[in-house]
Amino acid sequence: MIIRKYLEKDWSRICEIHDLARLDELRSASLVDAFLPMEIAAESENLFEYDLFVAEYKGIVAGFIAYDEEEIAWLYVDPALYRIGVGRALVNTVTKASSRTFTIEVLKGNTPALEFYKSSGFTEVGVESGVMPGNEKYEVTVQVLCNAINA
């Protein structure tokens, strides 16, 4: 697996990955009606204001991660490639290269994501409710986690 910086040529592939995996995420939280395709979500949620990396597996982009100094804001993996280490490789690239504490928000009900982050060294530190970033007409509850380095 190769982790590298996002390139413009990756755009169509990360759109495909996001749209498939985001639907899985929203299904888990009973929020499918809140789905926005990547073309809209990237702009409304400021994707390109984050550091953005992709994971290549067997020559194709298999997932991506976007983060800043405090937060992992986006992590999506092609559903056909779940459970082979793509997400973990992306998270480890970000967290192991820094002594910073990162937070992540997981939609309430998204048990697979919650279990994944906990197994990746994150600890639940709270629950917050508000509107969904980028699609503010939906109320959401999120479980807030941070990596255990400085928790």
From TrEMBL:
Residues 1-143 form the N-acetyltransferase domain. It comes from Pseudoalteromonas prydzensis. Pfam families: Acetyltransf_7 (PF13508). GO terms for molecular function: acyltransferase activity, transferring groups other than amino-acyl groups. SUPFAM superfamilies: Acyl-CoA N-acyltransferases (Nat). This is GNAT family N-acetyltransferase.
